[in-house]
Design goal:
CATH superfamily: Class I glutamine amidotransferase (GATase) domain
Strand content: 25-35%
Helix content: 25-40%
Number of helices: 3
CATH architecture: 3-Layer(aba) Sandwich
Radius of gyration: 15 Å
Structural class: alpha+beta
Number of domains: 1
Distance between the termini: 20 Å
CATH class: Alpha Beta
Length: about 130
Amino acid sequence: MGLPVQKAPAKEVGWAPVKRQSPLIPDLPEEFLTLHWHEEMFYLPAEAALLFSSAALDNQTFVWQHRIAGFQFHCELQADNLREMVVNDYPYFAGSIFQQDATSILQTPIPEAGRQFLFQVLDYITAQ
């Protein structure tokens, strides 16, 4: 969308909550646990509504003009996806502010709230 992506002030790898920032989409949870796997960040496009933030990084999810959604964290996960990420990219954990290891990441159940959130955002976009 023409805006830079750059190194974030903190590397987020592991499970951590995100908190709602906008009432734009009704019935979204106030907060839920999700998987972060990034050390870069995006800027919000003009006219975008910021939906969720983490404690370390404001721009986690946005909706732009009721048609496009941008996600920083992983709410689409299934157990096989998570295992593949951890097994194939475990060196990436180094330097994360969450300081979680492979075992703790894999032993955390994938929250259903993330899938529900994803469906709510997609329903919002497709209904417009």
